[in-house]
């Protein structure tokens, strides 16, 4: 039974996934594809069985030549060998195809589950998790799980069949000849147990060091402009090289362990002892010369599991370590849940904070005992010095973060009692730091309303004063913009974000200094559009623009995470010293 994992978003339920430990997690993915797993096992068994036939037929042919010089018998045995190997090829093909499909489907499922899990994590989780480390798990670690299945498990299953068949065939030649295959199995198991136990810790360190390197690389690439602007290229190169060296050292340590592979010694000893035993039986007239050939051929089959296990168990150790890292992310309990059965309905726009306290980390509270009430349809301006908690206050309304104490009510329902999707779909936040996707202009505008018509997209763009510059692009609304909108100016990015908000027609509109990168003339036109769209809906402004502050129905003044004053512009200007200082600063 799958462990219930708190998540603020669930796109797909993996009911048959067990998250208790990494072995059950891997097994839960394997058992989802029983047909391909069975085909892989059957193909591996038939491959080994038909391989074991060859030394038996060879021994019989050897006897036919030595005793009777029966060339017809030899010819028949040669034909039998050829036919058996052709059939073996068919089963090998079946095994390889099924194992490849099997491993690719497991990779798909694991990546799907991990991605859905990441979508469901709260912003608190993502704030403290390096993007590069997450990317290493989503890409490289998931790929390691694939390689653990194929060639890892594929060759291990095949190898086990090559170990099983000599145990079955050897005693048919002479009962005592089972001793050497059994001796090999015991030695092989002991060697593998030591090998895997030693290798797992190192493989896990390899994966962790790679994740740390990837996280630093992603951060440095994201800040490449700052690095170049401060001439810090050499210092950053040295810093990253240390992490690269750490990855190299762990890989070398893993290679050292792989080099000390005792299974090769076990196979060599069994081969020598097996030949000695069969020679003694031949001298005692208990077996024929052809039986020696057949028996040594059976021992030769142990070469396949011996050599393949040098890297297959390494693949399994790396894959299991990667699965452990993936499972650690999936099993991380976050402080938000989707609340599927929560309150739904059309939002009116009443917002109330009751003695709210909040901090991003336990040791530091950002908002202290905040109480305020916003009536539906009001326009509220929030002002305060940098770091006073203005943006944080708005992020509690749509549960980007959950409060530590108190209550945040939307339409008289605690936000934690709302269905999360229903709540967020009716609240739109336009931030100063705009994020745009590597998609067309139209797709970026309709991101919050994917089925919007082209006419609706263009109308939203016109209201946001974005239509004219969009039409100057080579493909107009079909123009694909770069990641984060790097090909656009700051003002263009903000206008596209405003158009996106206009299109969703939210009941609560939050503008977080959203016109800071826009010139005054364009701002005036956008402001007029905002006034029109704000009619009948709750609008919250975080701004330093005096024209917007004066326009607000109600103004909140924050200082060090506390509401120190509230009222209209004239009242605050007359009686609030903190507001007077802020207003004077902005006026200058």
How would you describe this structure in keywords?
single chain, 588 residues, alpha/beta, ABC transporter transmembrane region fold, Rossmann fold, 10 strands, 62% helix, elongated
Q: What is the overall number of helices? A: 21
Rg measurement, Å: 35 Å
Order of neighbouring strands in the sheet with most strands: 6-7-8-3-9-10
CATH class bucket of the largest domain: Mainly Alpha
The dominant shape is: elongated
Work out the strand percent: 5-15%
- Give the uncertain stretches in residue-range form: 1-5
The count of DSSP E runs of length 2 or more, i.e. the number of strands, is 10
Largest sheet: 6 strands, mixed
How far apart, in Å, are the first and last alpha carbons? 64 Å
**What is the total number of structural domains?**
2
Q: Helical percent range?
A: 55-70%
Mean pLDDT: 83
């Amino acid at each position: 039974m799958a462990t219930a994992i708190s998540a603020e978003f669930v796109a797909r339920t993996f009911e048959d996934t067990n998250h208790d430990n990494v072995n059950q997690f891997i097994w839960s993915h394997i058992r989802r594809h029983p047909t391909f797993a069975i085909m892989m096992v059957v193909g591996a068994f038939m491959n080994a069985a038909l391989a074991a036939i060859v030394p038996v037929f060879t021994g019989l042919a050897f006897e036919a030549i030595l005793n009777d010089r029966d060339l017809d018998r030899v010819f028949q045995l040669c034909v039998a060998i050829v036919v058996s190997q052709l059939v073996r090829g068919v089963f090998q093909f079946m095994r390889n195809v099924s194992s490849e499909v099997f491993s690719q489907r497991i990779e798909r499922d694991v990546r799907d589950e991990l991605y859905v899990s990441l979508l469901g994590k709260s912003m608190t989780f993502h704030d403290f998790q390096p993007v590069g480390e997450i990317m290493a798990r989503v890409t490289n670690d998931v790929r390691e799980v694939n390689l653990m299945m194929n060639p890892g498990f594929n060759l291990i299953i095949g190898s086990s069949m090559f170990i099983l068949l000599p145990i079955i065939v050897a005693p048919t030649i002479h009962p005592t000849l089972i001793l050497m295959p059994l001796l090999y199995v015991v030695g092989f198991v002991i060697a593998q147990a030591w090998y895997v136990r030693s290798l797992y810790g190192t493989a896990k360190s390899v994966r962790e060091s790679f994740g740390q390197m990837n996280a630093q690389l992603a951060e440095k690439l994201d800040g490449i402009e700052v690095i170049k602007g401060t001439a810090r290229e050499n210092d950053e190169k040295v810093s990253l090289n240390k992490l690269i060296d750490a990855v190299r050292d762990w890989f070398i340590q893993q290679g050292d362990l792989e080099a000390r592979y005792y299974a090769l010694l076990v196979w060599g000893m069994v081969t020598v002892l097996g030949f000695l035993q069969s020679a003694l039986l031949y001298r005692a007239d208990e077996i024929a010369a052809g039986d020696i050939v057949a028996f040594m051929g059976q021992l030769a089959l142990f070469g396949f599991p011996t050599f393949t296990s040098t890297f297959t168990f390494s693949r399994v150790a790396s894959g299991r370590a990667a699965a452990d890292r993936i499972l650690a992310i999936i099993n991380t309990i976050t402080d938000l849940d989707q609340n599927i059965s929560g309150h739904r309905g059309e939002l009116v726009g009443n917002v109330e904070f009751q003695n709210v306290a909040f901090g991003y980390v336990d040791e530091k509270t950002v908002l202290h005992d905040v109480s305020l009430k916003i009536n539906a349809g009001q326009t509220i301006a929030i002002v305060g010095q940098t770091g006073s908690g203005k943006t944080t206050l708005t992020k509690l309304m749509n549960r980007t973060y959950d409060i530590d104490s108190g209550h945040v009510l939307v339409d008289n329902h605690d936000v934690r009692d709302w269905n999360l999707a229903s709540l967020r779909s009716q609240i739109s936040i336009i931030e100063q730091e705009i994020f745009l996707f590597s998609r067309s202009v139209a797709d970026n505008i309709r991101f919050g309303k994917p089925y919007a018509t082209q006419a609706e997209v263009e109308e939203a763009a016109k209201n946001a004063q974005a239509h004219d510059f969009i039409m100057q692009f080579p493909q107009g609304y079909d123009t694909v913009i770069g990641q984060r909108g790097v090909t656009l100016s700051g003002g263009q990015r903000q206008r596209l974000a405003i158009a996106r908000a206009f299109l969703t027609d939210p009941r609560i509109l939050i503008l977080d200094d959203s016109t800071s990168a826009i010139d005054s003339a364009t701002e005036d036109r956008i402001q007029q559009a905002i006034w029109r769209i704000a009619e009948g809906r709750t609008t919250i402004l975080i701004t330093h623009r005096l024209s917007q502050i004066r326009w607000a129905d109600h103004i909140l003044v924050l200082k060090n995470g506390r509401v120190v004053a509230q009222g209209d512009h004239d009242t605050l200007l007359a009686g609030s010293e903190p507001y007077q200082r802020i207003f004077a600063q902005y006026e200058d």
